[in-house]
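Morning F.,

Quick status update on the modeling queue. The single chain you submitted on Monday has been processed. Sequence for confirmation:
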Amino acid sequence: MAKKTMEEIEEPAMFKQSAAKEIRITIPAIELSFDQRFRKKAPLLAILLVIYLFSCIVFDKANFRVMDLLDFTRIADAPYKLVSLSSLLFIALYSLLLAFTMFYAKGLNKVMALIALPVTLLPAFALSFFMPAMLLPFLGLSFGVAVTAFLASRERVIDWKAAWKITRRVMTLLLIGAVLTSYLKVAAAPQEYTHILLTSTEVKLRESPQFQTLFQGSSSNPITEGLINQIVSDDAINKTLSEDKLKEIMGASTEFNALPESTQNAMITQIRPKAQTVVKNELKQLATQEAQGVSDLSAQPTGMLEYYFEASGFDKPLTQWLPYAIIPLVWLIASAYLFIIRGTTTVIWFALSKL
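Structure tokens below.
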């Protein structure tokens, strides 16, 4: 038996060493399976498209804006927006959309389930031509549909617990998206939003009863009317328009000086009460007109609060931290709103599963 050479002995060892160091990368194939199950569920894509379009239109009509949280002249209307007809209709439509998405994706592979993404994504871009400011919200709603379809395709059985779990994950992603979108929107124009915040605050302060009392007066503290009555009082008129003062004024006339002194005194005694009444009424009318002018001016913002913040240097930290201050507000409101959508979606899914 011939002896093996050193090369023949070392060669298998080298192959074994190279095989041990071999790295394999497996790329999963994209499997498009237009089988009978998909063909049976394909009509649901048309239903998803229609519901998605109506959801976007109603969401725009609900008029949710970041401005509602920073403009104090509008903040009182914000709670009514959450329970408005458009808002409630959006909750119903979007919950129905997510429930139908789970119904569509159930039993399909992940790729076929994600066909729901282009079905809603393309209309989002189409609607943005008519409503440019709503592109990001529309994309977020489309993303929620896609994630719902993907998660539903991974579940073998979707009962109400699985539906609750799927919607929890979807709502969490939508919540993060809403917070980030609000933050970026305020961070893109912090000076503008700071100006709106300070101006609206000043407007609300000027509309407060305390401020109105200061400028207009009231029955409990009639500053304007009371001040006028104190200045233009009978006692003040009597002291100012005395007989001697009236005689001095009328003495500028040569005809009056030509009269006897007794006639002059009788004339002054007769004229003085009427002159006092005329002067008092004219002064009150002028004072009231001036006070009304100040009152009308007080209803308009003057930039006083904004100027104070700029002069004191408080405007810079306010502008810097305003984008961060919006985060907890949006998080709190959106969490409650999305929780309602989550519960409604689970209920609708449970109803659909019983059909």
